[in-house]
């Protein structure tokens, strides 16, 4: 497994061997087959989201049920299951998990897609269908459209009938995003606020989904139509600075929300329904998640380096 003994850059990530424990009441022992790497893992490692030390890393994986603790009735030995979110510790070949955090993986979904994209897929689900309900004909702006969440969410928003403007940080990523966005803006080489105003004939967009954070926050507000919704769901470039609520009035009586997946999967029923909706979107083929890169578990530090350098596209996986 990968553990850290202090916060820091990717050099704090160590590959260690530990004895396996027996599953306790309500727990399941998983033999993990593939592990997702998410941007949040870098916040846990760096200390932006602090952890008690020493700590594992990772919040997402797919695996096979190897042993059942007392009272677990929803799963049986050999079931293929996945989880996304919750306590850290996914960067491991075996893991004990509370059974109520697991979902069954449908036969049509590969271990790699379940492990590498369930968290992003469930995030896209709640962002597009519950944080703000995307409707047919609405113009939306999604930042980092070639990233893990971005690829899934933009494809799904298109399926919901939205007109999707996606931003990206390179020409290579622009070529990828243009396959599923109506308009693509390279925000490194052009002013995305001006481009959005041009595309919308000055009206602005109904909603901005912003997982980039510090670098895009102000510009994102300037892209919104009056009474538009600013959804700040991540900090890839650093946290959003503090701001005066009055700025929302000045820029058009805007709405602001800072959601996280955990609050949209609070109950077992919400978790199962959110995962099922995502798996359904993939099975039907209107969301085609891409595993852009994979690494051996012991090379997890390299995955973190590539994420920070913006060298990744789509989702990122660790092979067990
Ligand atoms: P991505 O694969 O999208 O990687 C992040 C992308 O952000 C980069 O590829 C890059 O794309 C862009 N970016 C812009 N500025 C920077 C910067 N300074 N440093 C690094 N990257 C930058 O990651 P994920 O799909 O894992 O996550 C996307 C966002 O969603 C993250 O902020 C994450 O924390 C958030 N998230 C939030 C959840 C929630 O429930 N609130 C759940 C899941 C994810 P480009 O080069 O095109 O600019």
Automatic annotation (TrEMBL):
Pfam short name (any one): ADH_zinc_N
Keywords assigned: NADP, Oxidoreductase
A GO cellular-component term linked to this record: cytosol
SUPFAM superfamilies recorded: GroES-like, NAD(P)-binding Rossmann-fold domains
InterPro entries recorded: ADH-like_C, ADH-like_N, ER, GroES-like_sf, NAD(P)-bd_dom_sf, QOR-like, Quin_OxRdtase/zeta-crystal_CS
Annotated Enoyl reductase (ER) domain residues: 8-318
Gene3D superfamilies in the record: Medium-chain alcohol dehydrogenases, catalytic domain, NAD(P)-binding Rossmann-like Domain
GO MF terms held by the record: mRNA 3'-UTR AU-rich region binding; NADPH binding; quinone reductase (NADPH) activity; zinc ion binding
Entries under SMART domains matching the protein: PKS_ER
Full protein name: Quinone oxidoreductase
Source species: Iodobacter fluviatilis
